[in-house]
């Protein structure tokens, strides 16, 4: 839309923006988005009845004559995005954009925990990191916020470019690049190019600062001509750190450039693969002058949730639940960490890795072969992709079939890693094992 000002005036009078007609807080602004199976325009009248003061629609047939509570636009999604960009520009809040194949949500949460110790912070809630979630996050910004952290996800080329053009971040952090969503990206090179769209934007902006994981050669190359603050395991970095324990929770020491004394931190995170995520949060906090003792307190207080490397102690077993997402990079890292972990009677329940395209079978076979090389004996595989590989492990087509088997033959005295793509619903397996 050419002039966002009239809609922005309505937004400023509202309590919040909602795109879900089932959730219409009093005083909110409803924006009628369309999907493959729904048309938000059809629910605008109900949204107004339920508490919204105005409704933005893009289908004139739902516009009652003379009703000033409706605001007609050409395209509701574009209006949402334009409104968010305008609001972001109006407030001018410094924004850190975070993306990456693995760890971006955990890094965002850790970074938010650290920055919140010193600043009035706004940050992405949950995984609202797409073309709808990012605008909604930006529209939650208020004048009192001093900083913002915005997570950005992608599954196709150009996705990150679309999001940075809306959020216009001032700082950037790419956690890593790996083999995920290959069905959409086409190749690993496509992943690199797409994630790199964050750095491309900051490069065009000029003078921007990026936080770079020094242990990752791809990221260093992607940021070679930008102002970098590096973190990692090498010495003499902006922030350096080393793992000091991992059974089962990650413990580490870190120190900032120029410091002689290291800071010791005991986290509630599982896995050495979380070390870069922690160091990223430290680097961001240190850059924004959060005192070291507050950084340490934030890291030690943070407890993961949403099936992301959670440790659950049941009456019969210890569960390590990492069932929110899976790709070859994160799966291998989880397996390697579990292999190194000091625990008796280990068991693995692994589910398919989704959206890998034509490479899917080969990539699943690599994981199975890696399990063999690690010497794991007690392994259960779930899903059609793992079923198609060559292996000697019991395999189940889906989570309900496995749950039925576990009710008959329930494991006891085990430490169990549960990991797979969210679509496999392996969280229900964890729930079943947690029941008495």
TrEMBL record:
Q: Which residue intervals define the domain Mur ligase central in the entry?
A: 98-284
Residue spans making up a coiled coil are: none
Keywords in UniProt for this one? ATP-binding, Cell cycle, Cell division, Cell shape, Cell wall biogenesis/degradation, Cytoplasm, Ligase, Nucleotide-binding, Peptidoglycan synthesis
Q: Which domain of life is it from?
A: Bacteria
One of the record's GO molecular function terms? ATP binding
Pathway per its UniProt entry is: Cell wall biogenesis; peptidoglycan biosynthesis
Q: What is its EC number?
A: 6.3.2.10
Does the entry feature the keyword Ion transport, yes or no?
Answer: no
Listed GO cellular component terms?
cytoplasm
HAMAP family in the cross-refs: MurF
Q: Which NCBIfam families match?
A: murF (TIGR01143)
Protein name stated in the entry: UDP-N-acetylmuramoyl-tripeptide--D-alanyl-D-alanine ligase
Q: What is the species of this protein?
A: Candidatus Bacteroides pullicola
